[in-house]
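Could you show me some protein's one-letter sequence and the numbers that encode its backbone in two labelled lines?

___
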Amino acid sequence: MSLFTILKKLIYLQIGYPTNYQFINFHFLQMSGLQFPQHDVIDGENQAPLQPANVEDPCGFIKNHLHFNYTNDAPDSNRIAAYHGTTCLSFIYKGGIVVAVDSRATGGSFIFSGTVMKILDIAPNMIGTMAGGAADCQYWLRSLSRICRLHNFRYQQPLTVAAASKILVNELYSYKGYNLSIGTMICGYDSTGPHIFYIDNDGSRLEGKRFSVGSGSTYAYGVLDTCYKYEMTKEEACDLGRKAIYHATYRDSGSGGRVTVVHIDENGAQRISQTDVFDIHDFDKKVE
């Protein structure tokens, strides 16, 4: 195997791993003057080659403008910011828990998708919501789901909501400072009743009766705090969750798409409805 091939494979191994070795590779490429073809084939798959930034100092450019910089010496004003827009809410009432979310995924001012499912199943009686980075939320919530299933297989009893949320927050705290972006609500019904825990990437863990997370949470809280009653019926509670998310999507550009409502009680989690916000808007206009 030629030195050229070995160098290429070593460089490919660094893709997706933002370590200091990657910065060294950029400098090495710059000094070596090696020219790679536009596309290459490794293990039978077409791979786009790793190319340094077309600037005088590629390593300095990356450290100053991208978030994956473990030295933390890049000025915040120079970093490329990825803004995450969403609205998720949950609340406890006499019949269980209502969880409502929108379905828009954004990156800055660009709308990536309008059909993202932001409610992920963790256990039959437990779900988690997504707010922040989609990849971070999906990975850690699925990891928690795996832990819950293994616990159920080994001990023939499900994890409580409090225990599951504690496991997740401990894992996230161990990665504090790695630029994760997670703001999730762990909602579930166990032998002790309904529980909602808010967890974020800084290691915060809060239990409460009502939570709203995301860029549109201010608007959702306004509706939720105004109309919330513990003695609501199931239909009233689901309508309140749907209404709060709709008003958030109406005012917040980072939220939109469809409103998904899930109800959780002693029988498990049940999806109630999934309604396009435009249909809700048209209905409200007809009522007026």
Observations:
- The CA atoms of residues 89 and 212 lie 4 Å apart.
- The mean pLDDT is 79.
- The chain has two domains: 3-78, 88-287.
- Residues 3-78 form one domain.
